[in-house]
Specification:
Length: about 350
């Protein structure tokens, strides 16, 4: 996802700019000279050029673009406006007066975008859906994607347990039950707990409750404004919040153990979820006691086969200890998650083109 770009080699200016970006809850790219700025110059949703590089950027044969701001150092410097115009800048900001404006501009620059939403659902109980959801979210973090893992199953016991994170402070779903309308995305991101470097929105161990669909809609929309990827672990009962997630998801993965009865159960889920999803795909979890193949299951279910994963040794023990999945070298699950992310990103690029 494109990020705002700061172009400066002045350490004081950069300190100030990074402080504002942190306040806005926005990740940025930094270029300390013109060649470093070139790759993201056209795609950055906002460019801030520091006072030290205004002239060099103006002469740097970069394309004319909108949403370029110059950071001025000296209010009494009459040349800064002319130099900013030469650069094609729309604005010159001075600190500290311009700080609130720039914080807002940084927030607006990234809030216009929408991160991908991946839903994961089990074809039968204990299929491995929660495990895959956590694994793919962790793999995305490993790719430097801003990722949120959302626990969509009020009866699942809390996905924070997968990370041994039950004592990590931060928001859980019960704190968000009365949420409506436009949620400030940066504030939400700040309030969520981080587990294994991943933002997690989990249920807790209190009384489970069904969330109002408005709360789910508002929270997911806010999360997608700051994240590259939101992964939702869904229950198999297709209640209203679950249907909302399915209808918003870019891709939904149904996880099915390679067994005949699991395939029969998954057919029920697939036929119902398939009415709501725009892209429903199959992940098969081995081993198959009777030699059922992923291709046979995909044919039986009428779903494209996204991948097959063989049983991961020690996974049950790791999960019980709160060691998250797909972190071992040569983990079969990690390999599947890499492929899944490749396909997700490609499908999104095709949709955007
Ligand atoms: N890739 C895998 N390899 C080996 N074991 C796995 C794998 N995925 C899941 N499991 C085992 O299956 C169990 C159930 O997994 P998980 O909780 O992810 O399933 P689920 O579909 O979310 O179940 P539920 O119906 O309870 O929501 C795990 O505790 C783990 O022991
Ligand atoms: Mg589960």
């Amino acid at each position: 996802m494109p990020r705002p770009l700061f172009v400066t080699s002045d350490p004081d200016a950069l300190d100030d700019l990074l402080r504002l970006a942190a306040t806005a809850g926005v990740e940025v790219d930094v270029a300390c000279d013109v060649p470093a700025a070139r790759p993201s110059w056209d795609s950055a949703p906002l460019v801030v050029v520091g006072p030290d590089l205004v002239d060099r950027v103006a002469r740097g044969r970069l394309s004319r673009r909108s949403k370029v701001v110059v950071l001025g150092r000296d209010l009494d410097d009459p040349t800064i406006w002319r130099r900013a115009v030469e650069l094609g800048a729309e604005q010159v900001v001075f600190f500290p007066e311009g700080e609130p404006w720039l914080i807002g501009a940084l927030g607006d620059a990234v809030e216009g975008r929408e991160g991908m939403l991946l839903a994961v659902i089990g074809g039968r109980g204990g299929a491995g859906a929660t495990t895959l959801a956590a694994a793919v979210a962790l793999t995305a973090v490993g790719r430097q994607m801003r990722t949120l893992l959302v626990d969509g199953d009020p009866l699942g016991g809390g996905i924070d347990l997968v990370f041994g994170g039950e004592n990590v402070t931060g928001l859980r779903w019960p704190d968000l039950g009365s949420t409506r309308g436009r949620v400030p995305a940066a504030a939400l991101a700040d309030a969520l707990p981080t587990m294994a470097e991943l933002s997690v929105l989990s249920w807790d161990r209190g009384e489970p409750a069904q969330l109002p669909v408005d709360a789910v809609r508002a929270v997911l929309a806010a999360a997608r404004r700051t994240c590259d990827l939101v992964v939702v672990d869904l229950p198999r009962n297709l209640d209203e919040p679950t249907r909302e997630v399915l209808s918003c998801a870019c891709t939904t993965v149904v996880v099915v153990p390679a067994e005949v009865r699991a395939t029969a159960a998954a057919a029920r889920i697939a036929s119902r979820a398939g009415l709501l999803c725009r892209d429903l795909r199959l992940v098969v979890r081995g081993p198959s006691p009777a030699g059922l193949t992923g291709a046979e299951m995909a044919r039986a279910l009428g779903l494209p086969l996204l991948g097959e994963v063989r049983a991961e040794p020690y996974l049950d023990r790791d999960l019980d200890r709160g060691d998250p999945p797909a972190r071992r070298s040569r983990s079969p699950l990690a390999g599947l998650c890499e492929r899944l992310l490749d396909e997700l990103v490609e499908a999104e690029q095709r949709r955007a083109a």
